[in-house]
Each structure stands twice: as structure tokens, then as C-alpha cells.
Amino acid sequence: MERALGRLAAGQQGVLTRSQARAAGLSDSTIAARIRSGRWERLHPGVYRVAGSVPSPKQALVAALMAAGDGAVASHGSAAHQWGILGPPRRPAITVLRPRNPKVAGCEVHRSRDLETGRVRVWHSIACTDPLRTLVDLAQMLPAVALDEAVNAALATRLVTVAAIQAELARLSRPGRGGVGHLRRALQRRGLVGGPNPSVLESRGSAFLRRYAIPVLAAEQRAGPEGEFRVDFVLVPGIILELDGYVWHFSPEHKQRDEARRRRLLLDGNHVFIATWQDLRDNPRQLAHQLLQAVAQGGRG
After folding, report:
1. What is the mean pLDDT of each run of 10 residues along the chain (301 residues)?
2. What's the CA gap between 195 and 297, in Å, rounded?
3. Secondary structure of 195-261 in the HEC alphabet?
4. How far apart are CA 166 and CA 188, in angstroms?
5. Looking at the whole model, is its pTM more than 0.85?
6. SS3 80
7. Domain 198-296 = CATH 1.25.40.20
8. Contact between residue 104 and residue 44 where contact means Cβ atoms under 8 Å apart
9. Could you state, in order of their start, the residue ranges of all structural domains in the chain?
10. Rounded to whole angstroms, what are the CA distances from 51 to 3, 4, 62, 266?
């Protein structure tokens, strides 16, 4: 019995429930004696930590899920931590389906009407909202900078795609549904949606250069040892401006080709400036100042 309980606790981050202890053959008096002796520590009603186990955010989460009962899942900051897109939260966050309303001390308990089983996955032995649902939930509570970082991490680790996020937003979009608008704006801030197509971006780039009287030696210039690369604008010899639509170059294959091309240009002695459509839209003066400063200092002789 003791070995079986030990193995069970080890697989649950050092946490056991009263019902599990009873099922293993322990009486209520034995359970009470273990609590009095310090062998077990009461974390929640009917949930205990075995002495010697190391407290951790994951242990606190497991205990909270046990206390909340069947159907509770890790969500919000706890799910994001499980998926590796945020650091550990200050306290566990879980979601239950309405009308359930469990009281779990020291835990964020969210109640949902639309937590479908298809949006729950078991990750590292813990039931969590899937990455898409997690991002929507996070968007209700995180400041813009932290949300952008979470989106970046989820995309970089390929937990989600831009298309999948858009589909999730469309699925959940309804009046009063928190998080949808915030996450949509995060995609727009990152240039992942809503960016102009390449020809429109280049037109905006040309207009920007004219507006700030930035010299242009050549546009759509061939470069590279064998002329295998095309660059958007050569301002003066050795200074190149590249326009990155991001939404059109987000796949790993596109990014790999772009980085290889830019490394080659740098090796050839060029100074390569990368500007996004957000730079042209939101920070044109700052970008113009940097480019004019570079031109004044000169490129290759």
C-alpha cells in the first residue's frame, strides 16, 4: 500500500487526495494522524502534499485542479506556462464549465460557457486549454507587450500558426467575448495580418523615400556574386533598404531564404536596413532620420 501511494504521489507532483488515500486502504484516522505528524500537509480540503516533495508552480496547479474536481483544466497563465510561452504565474489559474463555481484558495478560478472538450489537451500529464484557446484567454488579462511576447513564443515554437489564430478568433468572435479584439490587435501590431501586399508595400516605401528626400541610387537592384538576389532600394553604394512585410515572409522557409540573402549582402560590405510596414506607418520620422544619418556617413567607398 505504501509503495503504491508513493508511486501515485510521485506521478502527481507529490500530491494526493483523500479519496485516493481511502481507495488505497487508509482510514480517515490514519490520514488525520499523518497530517498531525507532518508526513502530509493539507493544501486544500481533501488535498495533501507528501512531506519531502518539492513545492513548485506545477505542484500548486495539480493541487488546485484536484481541489476543483472533475472537469477543471489549467488555463490562462498556468496553461501558458505549461506550453512554454510564459513564465510561471504567481498563482494557479484554472477554468471550469458553468454553472460550477468551486472555491479554491490561492487560485484564479475562471468559469466558461464555451470550453469544449476539443479545446482541452493533456500536456505533461496536466489537462490544459490548447494553445489557441490559451492565447485568447491571455489576451483578456495581459498588457500588450506581454501578450505580444506570448504570441511570438507560440509562433516561434510552432504551437500555433497565424491562420489557426485567425480561425480561432473567428470561431470565438461574438459580442462580449473577452480577449478576441485584444488578440486580433496583437496580430496587427506584429504585422502578421493586415499588412499590404508586396507591391503596395514597395509603393509606400517609394513614397516615404520621396517625402523625406532620401536619395535612391537604384530600386529593385540585382545583387550577390551572380546577381541572384533582388534588393528593394540601394540608397548609396553600400547602403541598402529592405522592406519586410513579415506577413508575406513569416514561414520558416521564407525567413531562412531572407536571412541567407541578407548575410550575403553583409559579407559583401553592405549595410542593410530592414523596415516593416509598421515602421513606415507608425515611425516614419525615426526611420528617415536613421537612413539620412547613414547616407551622410557614407557606405562603401
Report:
1. 81 93 91 93 95 92 95 96 94 94 94 84 93 93 90 87 87 76 82 57 85 90 67 88 64 59 73 83 90 81 45
2. 32
3. CCCHHHHHHHHHHHHHHCCCCCCEEEEEECCCCCEEEEEEEECCEEEEEECCCCCCCHHHHHHHHHH
4. 11
5. no
6. helix
7. no
8. yes
9. 2-50, 57-189, 198-296
10. 15, 16, 16, 59
What does the pLDDT read at residue 248?
Answer: 43
DSSP per residue over 158-209, as a string? Answer: TS--HHHHHHHHHHH--TT-TTHHHHHHHHHHTTSSSPPPHHHHHHHHHHHH
16 within 8 A of 50, measured Cβ to Cβ: yes
What is residue 109's DSSP assignment? E
| Contacts with 154 (C-beta within 8 Å, 6 or more apart), sequence order | 83, 85, 131, 135, 160
Secondary structure of residue 69 in the 3-state scheme:
coil
Q: CA–CA separation, 166 vs 163, rounded Å?
A: 5
**How many residues can be counted in the chain?**
301
DSSP E strands in 18-174: the ranges are 40-44, 47-50, 73-74, 93-97, 108-112, 120-123, 126-129
Q: What's the first-to-final CA gap in the chain, in angstroms?
A: 82
CA distance 96 to 74: 9
